[in-house]
Amino acid sequence: MTKVNPLRSLAFLLASAVACLAAGPDLMPLPAQYEARAGRLVIDGAFRVKVSGYTEPRLTRAAARTVDRLFKQTGIPTPQAAAAGPATLLIECKGPSKPIQTLGEDESYTLEVDPTQARLSAANPLGVLRGLETFLQLVDQDGNGLGVPAVSIHDQPRFPWRGVSFDVSRHWIPLDIVKRTLDAMGAVKMNVYHWHLSDDQGFRVESKRYPKLTSLGSDGHFYTQAQVREVIAYAHELGIRVVPEFDVPGHTTAWLAAYPELGTVPGPYEIERKWGIFDPVLDPSKEIVYQFLDNLFGEMTRLFDDAYFHIGGDEVEGKQWQASARVQAFMKKEGLKDNHELQRYFSRRVQAIVQKHGKRTEGWDEILDPHLPKDIVIQSWRGQKSLGVAVQQGYSGLLSAGYYLDLMQTAEFHYLTDPINEDTRTLTAEQQSRILGGEATMWVEMVSTQNVEARVWPRAAVVAERLWSPQSVRDVRSMYARLETMSRRLELLGLPHRQTYRLMVERLAGGEPVGPVKALADIVEPVKIYARSDSGKYTQFTPLNRLVDTALPESDAARNFRYAVADKDWKTVRSTLEHWRAAAAAVRPTLEKNGLLLEARPIADHWARTAEIGLEAVEFAASGRTAPSGWAGPRLAALDEAAKPVAETLLMAAPGVRALVELAAGGSK
Amino acid sequence: MTKVNPLRSLAFLLASAVACLAAGPDLMPLPAQYEARAGRLVIDGAFRVKVSGYTEPRLTRAAARTVDRLFKQTGIPTPQAAAAGPATLLIECKGPSKPIQTLGEDESYTLEVDPTQARLSAANPLGVLRGLETFLQLVDQDGNGLGVPAVSIHDQPRFPWRGVSFDVSRHWIPLDIVKRTLDAMGAVKMNVYHWHLSDDQGFRVESKRYPKLTSLGSDGHFYTQAQVREVIAYAHELGIRVVPEFDVPGHTTAWLAAYPELGTVPGPYEIERKWGIFDPVLDPSKEIVYQFLDNLFGEMTRLFDDAYFHIGGDEVEGKQWQASARVQAFMKKEGLKDNHELQRYFSRRVQAIVQKHGKRTEGWDEILDPHLPKDIVIQSWRGQKSLGVAVQQGYSGLLSAGYYLDLMQTAEFHYLTDPINEDTRTLTAEQQSRILGGEATMWVEMVSTQNVEARVWPRAAVVAERLWSPQSVRDVRSMYARLETMSRRLELLGLPHRQTYRLMVERLAGGEPVGPVKALADIVEPVKIYARSDSGKYTQFTPLNRLVDTALPESDAARNFRYAVADKDWKTVRSTLEHWRAAAAAVRPTLEKNGLLLEARPIADHWARTAEIGLEAVEFAASGRTAPSGWAGPRLAALDEAAKPVAETLLMAAPGVRALVELAAGGSK
């Protein structure tokens, strides 16, 4: 007994679970076609990469970056100069990409690896960039050491628009996090960084024409135009487009703090510190508003090189419009019968401005309007049905509903959300072709610079796979196994998402033992959807240093336990439950001592009780005996109690144990 | 039984060990005077820092940095603008420091914390910088949350020269690692960054006068003069002097690859790729050598602002001098009877050049020469005796012997090495006053950019404490407990030393379970002193990705086990041994599968056997029964076997179990 007991630690379990599930190519996203071949290409100090055919500085830099990353992955210094002979990795690029990356450019590539060489060929540098990520993901270890298994890969994306939409207004997101986000996006073959640059809580980009936007609207936290150019250039190196969003006419409190004359009410306005949907809104009846937007967007469309320009348009309630005699008179004059028509009027004017400056308009569902030109793109936060309406009207669209990383949903949920579902499957092929892809979104009300990356990564990678890989790729367990590897790869790439989790756990522990606090943080999840931000308790200045801020969006420990129950792996089930019971007891004194953890005391009690119930239940389930009638009832009630939010977290041990109890109870309750 | 077993994981043990030992102020280095007071200063969003009295940009930036770091530590956003009322932290600075930091400037400070305010006062900005680090280290958590305990601290350093000597030649150390090293040095109140910029394997700083030094002598890995200025400015912000070393006349192969005419033999020379002491040496008989050094050192003394300039002078065997008719004739002419006198001649000429350029000379023991002016500083790699000789002759000196971080010795060994020991205690007070302090050294033959920081930190912090805190501060267990906290603080500061360890462990594990591989890496240490570099197997291009490269210099797990044995904490001893036995079994299959770990297979067998022996022994020891005679012998023999190096690592489980066996065997063998 004692011999194997120490093995029964969650660390070991997790690790084993990961290992045994990681069958098949450990790649993310999975390629369109993958064929294993015999043999293996050795990676050693003689590694050499060569670019043949068409080349450009971006390609040679990408090759050099690949060598650096190969060193990070393998620890093998690869002194290019020193290495002679044929290239280990031969890059064959047929021609250039567009100078400014455009929607729908060819990203396909072919990667052929045999024991003598890896050959990566693509029509243009974009395909090469995608293929290099695949090559780096293929590097692994066998009995002889580090290398790449022989393989033939033919790969291209399912959708041409695969993005991350990142709010940098509600909390300030510094440049280094922006760049790391781009690094990670490149690693999972995403190609659009949607930069949500303004909102009620801050205007985050320098305007030389309207400097008060940042001097009065940003608390000094904004990107200079030089930094914006730096980000665009950095993204271009990785084959990523940068689409800016300036959200109008709502979500503009920070604008109005700087230029109140643009508002529907006189003001004065202050930068919004809370979260939610607010009344301040631009006044569509004022010509100066359109002049302002013409000047500002003129400046911004010159700064941002992408063909698309996002004008937001979401969540306008228009209370102030209704209360404004001026606006009401204007509506009457223009024959606009309600706020909806007024916003349509506004959107049309703004779209014309964007068009005048040579860009295509992107906006949220709300801007949809049959009178707009068909070249606009609708980003749908409402869902596939709304997306279907847009493409039926001849517009193009993106799905973001179901990809909101800030809502603390599972990777599985995001992974199985497909732009083509029962609502869109019935569209014509031509209509479906206008569904361009999707964007994972990160809204930053409830995150700080310390935990935001642990909220975006690694989960965004499963959205990347959904949008790149064939629709048939849907094996959830395979996804989770590969996601664990991907998470490690991202940390090797420089993302600190796993490190910051440990640092925040250690902060909670203070001088007390870290192990039990880590076990607690590992088994809880933050409450879901808008439970926190709707509470109204939070502002831009609220400390985000609690258990709920530390806990990851999804508990691996809880999921692995649920899998063990489903698999009737009673050994794992028992040892996990024993570990939980012990950890719940071990963490209790720390919860008493640490101010940051006092609120979590009830969780330890629920956790201990949940483990006890599970240990009773597994004896029935494992033996195949059905629990006596009346046994399950009170226990399920206790589990319902344990499953309720405490300190804005959910004890994720409860659902798995509930399944176990139901198993133990058989039909009877 | 099962109830507590999962608790018996090393993670829990370590964490507990740390917690229960961290009594007293959890500061490193410990202050000269510390007096706890009643009450506590709360840290919340209203935190505000104010600089009163003398101020300068460096101080206001330090205050701002303190606010940022406080956020990192606490997660509490501290919007200075928003905060009103009196300062939470009041900085009272009496006057300026010297524009260029000098040896022996006042670094003392007083920190008074009461429940209403923290007051930090110092004679100059240097003292403020030291005090700010103490303030940040005081922030902790109690039942009410985050704050600083009320305290009265009067603090000043024991020695004025507390440095890290960092070789950036043998392996290239990029700028970001240099800066992080400075950050960490500042955090532990060190004040000299000794930059070993040239050696046989590379010349690492741009010379505009002699560009071939880097174009032919650096593989393109060098710091531009702009970067050097950046580092000096960065160090100045942290109150750290930057002393450059250009090692002559030996250790100059990279120079000679660029300018062979300076050599004793004609050449041609190539950058050295191996490790050791090599024959190439400057020719002291050539006037062009002194002209070259005059020009180069003229350029470098203008680039580096510190008053001291390090000329190396170590490890010259002079074989080429003996073989050179030219040099022999020169020695005869000058009446120099041996290589030793020839080097003294050379040193005198070079010292005169350094002096002419307005700097004081620093060098290793070998330059010691009664004829040199008394303002030079000897850095002793030979030890306190050699140091004593120097100060007796009227020179000043630093200790580095005993502080070589690259030799993989314990923190305890470095911690207990004191510049004032039996060899120097007998010196007069006046002589002792010329012992300026010491420098931890990091020679980088056997490290890469991936593991170098985990080899320097956190151990360098114990050298910092030795040189800052009173000599009487020598409690080793307290040191280890505080070192664990310090290690976490350093990671919060941005050092990746714990993260890189985990990433390297994960690389070793490949697709296999990480837990057992981590347990293995946790219990081994690299072989000590020069066992590796003397093997001759290694070059600049050798992969450093093995278990020996991953393992930390000192095994916390092994040390905590030895402590448990010494404390007769049989519960911990048993559970650790059980964990080891299980982990040794669990890791075995991975060692078979992974090429990088094949060499470690014997370790798993020794480890399992060691655990078995320990489990037998603890039954005797715990029960107080003495093991039958004849029992211990074969087991001690097995432990001797287990203690032998395998794959250049040492199984550190063996010594603790040996102590246990001897305990069990009582007198009998």
How would you describe the overall organization of this protein?
- Mean pLDDT of chain A is 94; it is low at 1-22.
- In chain A, the strands form 3 sheets. In chain A, strands 8, 9, 10, 11, 12, 13, 14, 15 and 16 form a 9-stranded mixed beta sheet that branches. In chain A, strands 1, 2, 3, 4, 5, 6 and 7 form a 7-stranded mixed beta sheet that branches.
- Chain A has 25 helices and 18 strands.
- With 669 residues, chain A is α/β, with parallel strands linked by helices.
- Chains A and B meet through helix 1, helix 2, strand 6, helix 17 and helix 18 of A and helix 1, helix 2, strand 6, helix 17 and helix 18 of B.
Short synopsis of the structure:
By secondary structure, chain A is an alpha/beta fold.
Keywords:
homodimer, 669 residues, Chitobiase, domain 2, TIM Barrel, 3 domains, seven-stranded mixed sheet, 25 helices, 15% strand, disordered N terminus
Q: What count of domains describes the coordinates of chain A?
A: 3
Number of helices of chain A: 25
Give the termini separation of chain A.
34 Å
Tell me, rounded to a whole number, the average pLDDT of chain A: 94
The total count of strands of chain A amounts to: 18
Note the main sheet of chain A: 9 strands, mixed
Mass-distribution shape of chain A: globular
Oligomer: homodimer
Could you tell me which chain pair has the largest interface and how many residues each side has?
A-B, 79 and 79 residues
- Share in helix of chain A: 40-55%
Under the CATH scheme, the architecture of the largest domain in chain A is Alpha-Beta Barrel
Q: How much of the polypeptide of chain A forms β-strand, as a percent range?
A: 5-15%
The structure class of chain A reads alpha/beta
Would you state the CATH class of the largest domain in chain A?
Alpha Beta
Reported by name, the CATH topology of the largest domain in chain A is TIM Barrel
Please identify which CATH superfamily of the largest domain in chain A we are dealing with. Glycosidases
- Residue stretches of chain A low in confidence (pLDDT < 50, at least 5 long) are 1-22
Radius of gyration of chain A: 27 Å
